[in-house]
Amino acid sequence: MGVLNMGCQIEKLDMTGKTRSSIDYGCDELGRLKSALLHTPEESLSLINASNYRHWLFDEVPDVRRYIEEHRKYRELLESNGVRIYELSEHVDEQKDLIPKLPNLTFLHDIAVISEKGAMLSRMRPPARENEEVVVKEALENLGVPILSEFNGNGGFFEGCLLLSKDTVFVADTERHTYPFIQEFIAKVQDSFDEIIYARIPKARRYMHPDTVFNRIRKDLALAYIPAFEETYLFTKDSRERIDFADFIKQKGMEIIPVSDSEQRRLACSFVPLESGTIFHYDVALDPKTVKALAEEGVEIIPFHPEALLAGGGSLRCHTLRLCRRKN
Fold first, then answer.
1. 116 conformational bin, left if phi > 0, alpha if psi -120 to 50, beta if neither
2. What is the mean pLDDT of residues 281-299?
3. What is the full DSSP assignment across 165-226?
4. Which of 57, 182, 226, 267 suits 237 as a labelling partner, its CA being 20 to 30 A distant?
5. Tens digit of pLDDT for each residue in 39-61?
6. Do the beta carbons of residue 31 and residue 326 sit within 8 Å?
């Protein structure tokens, strides 16, 4: 088998002569973001109109041209900061016909989380998002990212988790999760992570994913909406104990800057760290008080102004499947 060295990506030729990629992967630690997978939703957005936009989970009918233009500008912002971007469609062959049928596929972060042990795939709940994980799985496998966890059975749903470190993963039981699938996920990954934090969150659209209530800025700093944490447990290989989330995080050496109710609704916790202490974020997400508190902590915010992208109801983080961070 031939091997072509392409910088951070290694191209491998299989026995048929077809090129297969193998990339560095893993986002467990908050090192500088090296690479991400994005999807430009060109054909699929044309499926959305005034009679069906709620079915497709959009807040309004998108202006397709402007949506794609803003998405392109975000891609350029990432690239200008040294992030290598992989386009989803360029790494999908067998499931390519599904891509034009999936307007929400652009929200790649909801579908997979990439640890140094492999990808943890979601099982999307709304009918409008059915089969998105099938497409993303093929792209990741073609990029050389192994699958650590996936759901093969029916009767349940699981939309995402957060990596807090190489040892700790956070699962929020939101409206997009079912508890049996959370139990299945915990059982699957307990050999890979020492700690799994489970939090029960109100079943409402505003809390649909874990990063709507919590997100790391640095190893010692995070944004969170604590009122959403109704009940929290810590799972280890040998035990399960109820914990106070804020106290647990504090014991881990991480300070929480709380966000307000209105900020949470504006996706204040859903941002993309470029590196420890530097984040990409919508410039409409945070109150001046929070911006000031972050500045006092030395946090740099790289702002992005959304207009057309807001039709989809997602954040920059939703659009960004982070593949690899440079290890500290």
1. alpha
2. 98
3. SSSEEEEEE-TT--HHHHHHHHHHHTTT-SEEEEEE--SSGGG-SGGGTEEEEETTEEEE-G
4. 226
5. 999 889 999 999 999 999 999 99
6. yes
Which CA distances in Å does 174 have to 155, 182, 231? 16, 10, 12
What does the block give as tokens for 109? 């972060």
For the chain, the distance separating the N- and C-terminal CA atoms, rounded to the nearest angstrom, is 33
Cβ pair 158, 122 in contact under 8 A? yes
- Position 19, amino acid: T
Cα–Cα distances in angstroms (integers) from residue 87 to residues 54, 171, 320, in the given order? 27, 28, 11
Residue type (1 letter), 243:
I
Q: How far apart are CA 42 and CA 7, in angstroms?
A: 29
| This prediction's pTM | 0.92
**What does the block give as tokens for 158?**
């699981």
Could you tell me what percent of the chain has a pLDDT over 90?
Answer: 90
pLDDT tens digits along 123-155: 999 999 999 999 999 999 999 999 999 998 888
Give the phi and the psi of residue 260 in degrees, each rounded to 5: -80, 170
